[in-house]
């Protein structure tokens, strides 16, 4: 979950190195920080939870 949430922040900083990346860059960096904190403090893997949610929503009954 870290790479998908940090990639927009990294891209914003790479494309505009002299100025602040803006709200999108800050939001992406914040999301990565929150995901890392939840994983470190509580052992909660937000990527795992997101995967299970998507899987439940897309599984078709046979």
Name its key features.
62 residues, mainly alpha, single chain
Summarize the structure.
Helix 1 (2-15) packs antiparallel against helix 2 (23-42).
Tell me what the structure shows.
The protein has 62 residues and is an all-alpha fold. It has helices spanning 2-15, 23-42, 46-58. It starts with a helix and ends with a helix. The mean pLDDT is 79.
Report the portion of residues in β strands: under 5%
The Cα radius of gyration reads 15 Å
Runs with pLDDT <50, length 5+? none
Report the principal-axis shape: elongated
Largest sheet: none
The overall pLDDT, averaged over residues, is: 79
The arrangement of helices and strands along the chain is HHH
Q: State the helical fraction.
A: over 70%
Category from helices, strands and their pairing: mainly alpha
Q: Count all strands and give the number.
A: 0
| N-end to C-end Cα span | 31 Å
Total helical elements: 3
Write the layout of secondary structure elements.
Layout: H1 2-15, H2 23-42, H3 46-58
Helix pairs in contact: 1-2
């Amino acid at each position: 979950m870290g790479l998908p949430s940090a990639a927009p922040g990294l891209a914003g900083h790479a494309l505009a190195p002299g100025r602040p990346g803006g709200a999108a860059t800050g939001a992406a960096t914040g999301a990565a920080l929150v995901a890392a904190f939840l994983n470190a403090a509580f052992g909660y893997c937000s990527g795992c939870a997101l995967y299970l949610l998507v899987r439940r929503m897309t599984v078709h009954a046979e």
